[in-house]
């Protein structure tokens, strides 16, 4: 469910916004674009990013 919400939100973002930081995991910042790649490929980092942005109420 969260993955689908993220993908829908990402699809509706303007191009410049996709470069903005969406999450900080282990002191590293991740943009919407990086998050998209990780979440789309079902990586462990993608799972962490999804949990973080869900906790922040972004999706």
Tell me, briefly, the overall form.
globular
| Low-confidence region ranges | none
Order of helices and strands: HEEHH
Radius of gyration: 10 Å
Task: Give the assembly state of these chains.
Answer: single chain
> Cα distance, first to last residue?
10 Å
Structural class: alpha+beta
Measured by DSSP, the beta-strand proportion falls in 15-25%
Level of helix content?
A: 40-55%
Largest sheet strand order? 1-2
Major β-sheet profile = 2 strands, antiparallel
DSSP helical segment count: 3
Tell me the number of strands: 2
Name its key features.
3 helices; alpha+beta; 2 strands; two-stranded antiparallel sheet; 59 residues
Condensed summary:
A two-stranded antiparallel sheet has the order 1-2.
SSE topology sketch:
Blueprint (H helix, E strand, L loop, with lengths): L1 H10 L9 E5 L2 E4 H9 L3 H12 L4
Antiparallel strand pairs: 1-2
Helix pairs in contact: 1-2, 2-3
């Amino acid at each position: 469910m969260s993955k689908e919400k993220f993908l829908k939100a990402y699809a509706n973002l303007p191009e410049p916004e996709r470069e903005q930081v969406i999450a900080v995991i282990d002191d590293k910042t991740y943009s919407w674009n990086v998050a998209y790649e990780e979440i789309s490929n079902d990586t462990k980092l993608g799972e962490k990013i999804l949990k973080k942005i869900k906790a922040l109420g972004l999706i």
